[in-house]
Amino acid sequence: MLDGEPRVITAGAAVLAEALDQQAVPRLGVDWRPPLPGTSAALAKVLADPARQRANEVAVGRLLSARPQLVGVRPARDVLDLPERTFFHAGPPIDWERASGPMRGALIGAALFEGLAADAEEAERLLVSGSVKLDSCHHHRTVGPMAGVVSPSMWMFEVVDGEHGGTAYCSLNEGLGKVLRYGAYGPEVVERLRWMGEVLGPVLAGALAVSGPMDLRSLIAQALQMGDELHNRNRAATSLMVREIAPAIVEASPEHAAAVLRFINGNDHFFLNAGMAAGKVSADAARDVPGSSLVVAMARNGTDFGIQVSGLGDRWFTGPAGVPDGLYLGAYGPDDANPDIGDSTITETSGLGGFAMAAAPAIVRFVGGDVSDAIAATRSMYEITLAEHPAYQIPGLGFRGTPTGIDLALIARTGQLPVVNTGIAGRVAGTGQVGAGLVSPPAEAFTSALAALADT
Amino acid sequence: MTLGTRTRIQHRAPGDAKAFGAASTALRPALESPRRPARVLAVFPLGVYLEIRTDVEPSVVAVVTGEATRLPNAVVLSDPLPVTAPGDEAAVGDGCIEIGRLTVRVRRWWDPAPSLGPVELSRLEQVLPRLGVVCAASARRPGLADGGAGALLAEGCARGSLTAAITATEQLMGLGPGLTPSGDDMLAGVLVALRQIGRAAGVSRAVWLADWLAATVAFDARTRTTPISATLLHCAAQGQACADALAVLRGIAGHQPLEPAVHRLLRLGHTSGADLAWGLRTGVSAVVALGRSLRTAR
Amino acid sequence: MTSDLVEVRAGVYHDSVSLMRISQALSSRPGVTVAVVAMATELNLGLAREVGFEIPETGPSDLLVAIRADSDAALKDGAEELDRQFAALARGGGSGGAHAESPPRTTRAAARAWDASLALVSVPGEHAFAEAMDAIDAGLSVMIFSDNIPVEQEVLLKERASERGVLVMGPDCGTAVVGGAGLGFANVLRPGRVGVVAASGTGAQQVTCLLDHAGAGVSHVLGVGGRDLSAAVGGRSTLVALAALDADPATELIVLISKPPAPEVAEVVRRAVEGLATPVVTALLGPGQDDLTSAAEKALRALGLDVPEWPSWPVPQRAAPSAELSGLYSGGTLCTEARIIAGSGAFTDFGDDEYTRGRAHPMIDPTLRLEALGRASGVALLDVVLGHAAEPDPSARLAPAVREACERGTAVVVALVGTESDPQGMRRQADALVTAGASVFTSNAAAARHAASLIGSAL
């Protein structure tokens, strides 16, 4: 303890730090600031909980050790226990009345796709009447990008955790442009969903039956080293996925192989949904550890941003969803943007996406910044995470593991909110994607969760 | 490296920039004396050596950065080194060091000869072969060939023969090329080990030997070797050494892992580290030999 | 005609000591009548509103600047000084050191990014627990300079530290020297053989400075916090510190300085001391017990060294027959010691919470004490504590006040705690104070006896 030259970390008064500098004592200063307003009492209680550290070690240990594997593609009706006239949606629970434009558009599209209504007006009346039941994807081991609407006839990626045995689901990605997840519900949207249900889903299912499970943990690890951050850039992951599954597709369904491969190749984000299910199954492994302040879900429904915490069961803690700050497509601008939407923040929850921005210099301009911003974003996330991912590494940071496992207490202490990379949906139902950028979650979601944890 | 011998005369306003640092207590007498003129002797990327115009040792002060080897005559600066050149004027005393326009004040004192606490002779017997293994495995070798004055010193110390040891000391001083000739570094290692390890192991014969060799060094060093080396020999005679050599001593005494410390010392300078390591080993061997003969005599 | 400048800087944070220094620097500009530079907490907003500033909507994570001057030109000058001060703060600064470009935001992050041996925590007390626990969890010993930490948190920290085999110094630990590095209000001491374990910061400073005067150096000074030897805390840090010094080869004598501990703790400590290989000199402070000077003398004798005449510069002084003694102290332990020795008089500890709310410690900001000296009559006894982080030149403001007091017929006696190597220079400070008319003693006990003799009440 008293051996050797002292090397001192200083947090607090500058005058004491300067005195050490004048003594030529090696020193690292903490850029300390007071915690988020109103969190002091809760922080003191949570930090003093002697069980907390162990609880967090257990929870984040599960998150890090999860081994997500893509095992199948199956209809939602079969695997989710999803009755007719029930739709799942992204984010914390919401009803039609509070739903935003793209959420409403996607629900209308799903009603049309399921044949519950002949046209949009009828679908809307049906939804207003409440005769279609809505529930949060997260309540059913499921995640969905943007509006995240899941109806019984949609086909889902099925991902299991080889380590802890959990299962999670995510719909198949429709591609870019006018798509359901951005709230579009025109005939081409519904038609594409039909083709996905009749051709894409069964073909992928057949191919996976031939090829066996796909190891998503190692695929994600490789994609990170090829310039993806797995939220806004999935080009490498999609390519790796195609390379792995293409022979099986050809073997299982020679008649549809060309169309299916062409569809996947036309969509750089095809892997996103599989990656989200991988994130979900990993985060779910960390749920329900008493006393743990680990965030196990971050999700938006276009109106609210909500989080769930390992030590707080299935309770949601919400705040208003913000409008992303980023670049817009074509003539669109901030006025056309809907507040933040989608379950894709499961990538950030599991140490990818905005947290791994330093791995994806190719897309920094797309979200409005330069490479140094990307590195700064990832570095700042180490401040609020409990661990560094042993498999997901960033070459540009000397193969340092991605910052993984968001800790409520660290967010309150640093005031540093999670960095979220996201697509931006049009405000008006049916518009589709209008841009992409970064969004800051509402602090109250985290501070109210911390208060609740202090009360347990 | 640049080395200068002439004094450049420059007339400047007294120091107007301030710096702070941590100084070896070996420099305390020089700093507490009235201000005396000095000159810049040598400039390295990580240090500036000043020579004080005085007959009293230590006459050379090393002003270094935190990354430099911490010599026993060093002031470690918290700020960047001043821009200066050999021959520039400087001053030491009245509590500060002036280099050109820069005034350095001491805000911390450190001990270049910290006590090791007691060490058992059996511990030394057990550690010596480990020291030998690391040194033998290293590509770093002392700057002087085996045998000669070095062998004479080793043998004289181990036997406790004052004549042989003093003769060898006189021969080694200033022997070899460079700023700190190999002979001086080897001798310094022996001096430090005899005093520090001798004291720690309670072998008074070794400390007695160190006193005699120290007297020889004090008498002769300034005429036999470079000013920097003479100051370092003077420090070694008091048991003071650079931080890397002290770490090896602490390793020998069991206060920190030995092998990594020896590796760090061996990497020092061109041959300085290997010379010092040879000296420490030789000194420890002598302490063991003298201690053993004492035990047998009893 | 006065002009006001009110400005809120959103999301800017600086520690309170730095901001008080800036406020002080602004207030001393010609024409500036009021300057408040502070975090926009309720307390600080209240202070600013009280003096009539119009404050916009703001919150505790913003920085408030409110300056009033008697002319526009003076206000402009004040604003320029403000910018200079902030620029200087950014250059030196609490953060920085290694990794200055993207500094860590928590002690936890710092400990992960850098190979440290120790953490020094001086954030506001209500937030110190988190930083200290980070250090302990990272296997680092920690000095907690912050005060106002609940005792339950102290116990938790020290329990965890025992598990991790590290030392918690504090909370409210004002002084430590580890491996020669002075932490907090420490003096520049010569390295040496004496290790100190102290439950009192200024107490440790007095003892180590006297040892330094006597030519005896210290190896380490480990503060344990004023509550460590209470029944609740159970001496946890004292035990760890004693063991650490016992294992340290440089330490040949341990000096343990504390108020008399809780009886059950005293027994535990006594047994621990008996088990050490290194001799221990215990100095228990209190009525009928040791004073700090006698503790230093005990240590010197244990080292086999001579006890010197402690440096002092008494000047001829007289006090009126019925004169009162006022003790105006910045160090709590020094204040208590002087009160006990003097036997009578009105003593004030300006380092107490009561006087430091909303302002810096009197070792940094002497304003309140100087005001009190301006009112003192009879005999005024005060301490001046030098060292790292203390006022850079205390006599600059104190000497004129001393002169004024002497001219009023007040006898001023100063206990000067410091070393010649201290940034302020002990002799330079003594000279200035003696020239101003004060009697100066390096021993607080001697100063108190001298002051008491002037009013004829010495014990």
Task: Describe the secondary structure blueprint for this structure.
The complex is a heterotrimer of chains A (456), B (298) and C (459).
Chain A: E1 8-11, H1 14-22, E2 27-29, H2 40-48, H3 52-65, E3 68-75, H4 76-79, E4 86-89, H5 101-113, H6 120-129, E5 133-136, E6 142-143, E7 155-161, E8 167-171, H7 187-211, E9 214-215, H8 216-225, H9 235-252, H10 257-265, H11 270-285, E10 295-301, E11 304-309, E12 317-320, E13 325-328, E14 341-342, H12 346-349, H13 371-382, E15 385-394, E16 400-406, H14 408-414, E17 420-425, E18 433-439, H15 443-455
Parallel strand pairs in A: 1-2, 4-5, 6-8
Antiparallel strand pairs in A: 3-7, 3-9, 7-8, 10-11, 10-14, 11-12, 13-18, 15-16, 17-18
Helix pairs in contact in A: 2-15, 3-11, 5-6, 5-7, 7-9, 8-9, 9-10, 14-15
Chain B: E1 2-3, E2 17-24, H1 28-32, E3 36-44, E4 47-52, E5 60-64, E6 74-77, E7 89-93, E8 96-99, E9 102-110, H2 121-137, H3 148-159, H4 162-172, H5 182-200, H6 204-224, H7 227-237, H8 243-253, H9 258-266, H10 272-297
Parallel strand pairs in B: 2-9, 5-6
Antiparallel strand pairs in B: 1-3, 2-6, 3-4, 3-7, 4-5, 7-8, 8-9
Chain C: E1 3-9, H1 16-27, E2 32-39, H2 42-50, E3 63-69, H3 72-91, E4 96-97, H4 107-113, E5 118-121, H5 125-137, E6 141-144, H6 151-164, E7 168-169, E8 175-178, E9 181-184, E10 191-198, H7 201-213, E11 218-223, H8 236-247, E12 253-258, H9 263-274, E13 280-284, H10 292-302, E14 312-313, E15 325-329, H11 332-342, E16 346-349, H12 353-356, H13 367-375, E17 379-385, H14 394-407, E18 411-417, H15 426-435, E19 439-441, H16 444-455
Parallel strand pairs in C: 5-6, 6-7, 10-11, 10-12, 12-13, 15-16, 15-17, 17-18, 18-19
Antiparallel strand pairs in C: 1-3, 2-3, 8-9, 14-19
Helix pairs in contact in C: 1-3, 5-6, 7-10, 11-16, 13-14, 14-15
